[in-house]
Design brief:
Strand order of the largest sheet of chain A: 2-1-3
CATH superfamily of chain A: Phosphoribosylformylglycinamidine synthase subunit PurS
Number of helices of chain A: 2
Mean pLDDT of chain B: 97
CATH class of chain A: Alpha Beta
Largest sheet of chain B: 9 strands, mixed
Radius of gyration of chain B: 15 Å
Shape of chain B: globular
CATH architecture of chain A: 2-Layer Sandwich
CATH topology of chain B: Rossmann fold
Number of strands of chain A: 3
Strand order of the largest sheet of chain B: 2-1-3-4-11-10-9-6-7
Mean pLDDT of chain A: 95
Oligomer: heterodimer
Number of helices of chain B: 5
CATH superfamily of chain B: Class I glutamine amidotransferase (GATase) domain
Strand content of chain A: 25-35%
Order of helices and strands of chain B: EHEEHEHEEEEHEEEH
Number of domains of chain B: 1
Chain lengths: ~80, ~220
């Protein structure tokens, strides 16, 4: 089973890298970019067959290692 | 005083820590490999600076889950003093032994220079040799030292005197909240700090201001 974890910074957490991207986009002449926030994507290849169980296990992985929940949110996509 | 330095793949200030501890305590520390499950009985455990696991995922995130860190957590719980410098501080926050997180420097630049540190609490096992409010020199060298935490935790840290060091005289190199350079755990036996006191302990370093930190621990252990 394949799954994708998307990790994003929580609202209100300063994202200097996103700011730099935003600045670079403006510098290239892309107007109307109000904000850019940078995150991470982690693709997992799992032995699991039950999507619900897989989701539960991935949430545990996120809480324990993949995300730092002080500053990050995570979303789990089961890709089948 | 007996001490130990935990070595992670990618640590690079371990020898500086060993040299400082040997010089100030008169006894060479035990160097413990991160895969070791037991740290010998010591009075101080140091997590040195560096780039453990190449800063993959998040700085300190993978090192924080190593077998040696489980024993560091157990020993910290039992009251053993733990000092995390730079990457060591990042590892302590990732391991949950200290609150908050060290984010990318606000100006996105790696900083390597000497800054001014104010001793924000001189009544701790790590700072007793300094005067309250004393300003000392200390080198910094990091890319991710921008201390961040939620407002409640910040208020608790400030209210309980758990901010040990602050960047002083406008030298905050990373944008950290309240100019925080180093914080303590609730019990006061775990200190994490971004600057490198181990790099300012002999004349050839260009100053001795870092010595007081190690002397403080020696004195608190002897007391």
């Amino acid at each position: 089973m394949k799954a994708r974890v998307i990790i994003t910074l929580k609202n209100g957490v300063l994202d200097p890298q996103g700011k730099a991207i935003e600045g670079a986009l403006k510098g290239l002449g892309f107007d109307g970019v109000d904000a850019a926030r940078q995150g991470k994507v982690i693709d997992l290849d799992l032995a699991d067959t039950d999507p619900a169980k897989a989701r539960e296990r991935i949430a545990a992985m996120c809480d324990k290692l993949l995300a730092n929940t002080v500053i990050e949110n995570y979303a789990i996509d089961i890709l089948g | 005083m007996r001490s130990a330095v935990v070595l992670f793949p990618g640590s690079n200030r371990d020898r500086d820590a060993v040299a400082a501890l040997t010089k100030v305590t008169g006894r060479a520390p035990v160097v413990v490999w991160h895969q070791d499950t037991t740290i010998p009985d010591v009075d101080l455990i140091v997590l040195p600076g560096g780039f453990s696991y190449g800063d993959y995922l998040r700085c300190g995130a993978i090192a924080a889950r190593s077998p040696a860190m489980l024993d560091v957590a157990r020993k910290a719980e039992a009251g053993v003093r733990v000092l995390g410098v730079c990457n060591g501080f990042q590892i302590l926050t990732e391991a949950g032994l200290l609150p908050g997180v060290l984010m990318r420097n606000a100006n996105l630049r790696f900083v390597c220079k000497r800054v001014k540190l104010k001793v924000a609490n001189a009544d701790t096992d790590f700072t007793r040799a300094y005067m309250q409010g004393q300003v000392i020199d200390c080198p910094v060298a990091h890319h991710d030292g921008n201390y961040f935490t939620d407002p409640e935790t910040l208020a608790r840290l400030e209210g309980d005197g758990r901010v040990a060091f602050r960047y002083a005289e406008g030298t905050n190199p990373n944008g950290s909240l309240n100019d925080i350079a180093g914080i303590l755990n609730e019990r006061g036996n775990v200190l994490g700090m971004m600057p490198h006191p181990e790099n300012l302990i002999e004349k050839l370093h260009g100053g001795l201001d870092g010595r007081g930190l190690f002397q403080s621990v020696v004195e608190s252990v002897a007391a």
